[in-house]
């Protein structure tokens, strides 16, 4: 394998959380007087940290979100995760192959550390990640599309950015990886390939990824 470190996005790449989370987000924003469809939530917020929701609501001149917005959103999302969340098909097999091949990996997510851990425990992926292999936008000042999170993950894992490859499924994540000077492969399970521009390559099935990385 030509890369020393594989950096995974989490939501939509390792755990199949995007349909759940965006359904809840769209519904809650609509409930608060900011009409948002599921498709609009995917377009505007997929791959982003929650501060982007506040930023876009402010930019659009809507009433500010309540102080407990994030707490309520998280509680609703976690409750749904406990009922519905599953791992992305092939994710566990891919992680097993990386371990067998001696390839280092980590996760760098816009979600909070708690959200990552809740999802991993629910899906059984927690067995594949040590705590020091998990990075969140909470760890840096800016989330995606800024490169800070990916650069932070690479530094902590001791690998130069140009020796890293990022696995992403959102335009914001792809933009962040490119800004970090890393190769990036776009996972097209939810986002069409024409929305993931500038990537090193596209794939639609986790089973395809080892060959692309070789």
Automatic annotation (TrEMBL):
Required cofactor names: Mg(2+)
EC identifiers of the protein: 3.1.3.-
Top-rank taxon, per record: Bacteria
Family: Belongs to the HAD-like hydrolase superfamily. CbbY/CbbZ/Gph/YieH family.
CDD domains for the chain: HAD_BPGM_like (cd07526)
Enzyme class: hydrolase
Protein name: HAD family hydrolase
UniProtKB keywords: Hydrolase, Magnesium, Metal-binding
Pfam families: Hydrolase
Annotated organism of origin: Streptomyces microflavus (Streptomyces lipmanii)
Keyword Metal-binding applies: yes
A GO molecular-function annotation: hydrolase activity
SUPFAM superfamilies: HAD-like
């Amino acid at each position: 394998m030509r890369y020393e470190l594989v950096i995974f996005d989490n939501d939509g790449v390792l755990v199949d959380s995007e349909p759940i989370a965006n359904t809840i987000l769209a519904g809650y924003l609509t409930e608060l007087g900011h009409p948002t469809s599921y498709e609009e939530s995917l377009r505007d917020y997929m791959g982003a940290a929650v501060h982007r929701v506040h930023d876009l609501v402010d930019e659009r001149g809507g009433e500010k979100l309540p102080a407990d917005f994030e707490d309520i959103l998280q509680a609703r999302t976690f409750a749904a995760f406990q009922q519905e969340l599953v791992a992305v098909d092939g994710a566990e097999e891919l992680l097993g192959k990386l371990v067998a091949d001696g390839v280092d990996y980590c996760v760098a997510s816009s979600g909070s550390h708690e959200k990552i851990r809740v999802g991993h425990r629910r899906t059984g992926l927690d067995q594949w990640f040590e705590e020091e292999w998990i990075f969140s936008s909470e760890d840096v000042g800016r989330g995606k599309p800024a490169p800070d999170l990916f650069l932070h993950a690479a530094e902590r894992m001791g690998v130069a950015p140009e020796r890293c490859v990022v696995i992403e499924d959102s335009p914001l994540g792809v933009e962040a990886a490119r800004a970090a000077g890393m190769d990036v492969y776009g996972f097209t399970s939810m986002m069409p390939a024409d929305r993931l521009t500038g990537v090193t390559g596209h794939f639609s099935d986790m089973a395809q990824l080892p060959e692309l990385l070789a």
